[in-house]
Amino acid sequence: MNGRRLYEEIGGVNERYLQQAATYRVKRRAVSWRMALIAAALVLVGSILVGTLALSIGVGVIGGMILEELVPPTNDQPPQSEAPIYSIAEMEDFMAQRQQGIIPLAKEKVPLFNQDAQLIWTDGVSGDYYRVSLTRDECNGILYLMQKEQKDIGEHSEQPSYQIWISLGDGTVISPYLKVNAGNTGHGELFDYDPEVELSEQMIKQIIRCVES
Predict the structure, then answer these.
(1) Which of 155, 146, 168, 138 lies closest to 194 in space, CA to CA?
(2) What is the tens place of the pLDDT at every residue in 127-159?
(3) How far is residue 113's CA from residue 169's CA, in Å, rounded to a whole number?
(4) Which residue among 41, 125, 138, 196 sits deepest, i.e. has the most Cβ atoms within 10 Å of its Cβ?
């Protein structure tokens, strides 16, 4: 039974009250409908936002996984190239190659008073001696390395096949294979010796540079 039939049945109800009640119900329905639409719209927007966020996170994770496969982690540094470590045998190979273009000299013919610093060597087999001129910087580099801490040669050390001397040009002769002292200094002659110290890697490199230049 609607409101109008109820009014007709019981009577005595003011028409104005009935109209207000009807109007109130209509407005109430309208407001409820609009609220439902707004709520539905909010739910839809929320779903879209959540879906977008989830998609973004998913894409980010997948993208990150792809990048991790393509790009190594930043904390993994690329391998550093190591400087070549020369041995005494390699140094002597450089000398053997260089002496092919040098006129060999007899021991007594090697000039030691020519005012030029020289690197002199012999293989100890042929009896031939070879020499190359040294610049002041090259000579000073060898002298500096000789004055640094030297390591005694031992039975497990790499044994040289060549004898090497440095001539300072005023008759003074020294060898990088000997300890630095007055007893190991020659004057006007290339003296024989037994190696006392190992050549450091820096010394080997310095001698190679002198032979190559």
Answers:
(1) 155
(2) 999 999 999 999 999 999 999 878 999 888 899
(3) 5
(4) 138
Q: What is the pTM of this model?
A: 0.60
Retrieve residue 142's tokens.
């060898």
Helical axes 201-212 vs 88-98, angle rounded to 10°: 10
- Tell me the chain's radius of gyration from C-alpha atoms: 49
Q: What is the rounded CA–CA span in Å between residue 136 and residue 47? A: 82
In 3D space, the residue among 201, 198, 184, 203 whose CA is nearest the CA of residue 151 turns out to be 198
Residue 49 corresponds to which tokens in the numbers above? 């936002």
8-15, long-range: CB < 8 A, 24+ apart? none
Amino acid at 75: N
Separation of first and last alpha carbons in the chain: 119
- Look up residue 8 and give its amino acid: E
Query: How far apart are the C-alpha atoms of 144 and 167, rounded to whole Å?
Result: 15
Q: Which amino acid is at 51?
A: G
Which amino acid, 28? R
Q: Which of 150, 130, 148 is nearest to 140 (CA)?
A: 148
| Mean pLDDT along residues 189-204 | 95
| Number of C-beta neighbours around residue 122 at 10 A | 23
- Token representation of residue 112: 């030691």
Q: What order of strands is seen across the sheet that includes strand 129-133? A: 129-133, 118-122, 163-167, 172-174, 186-187
**166 close to 144: Cβ distance less than 8 angstroms:** no
Six token digits for residue 110: 């090697």
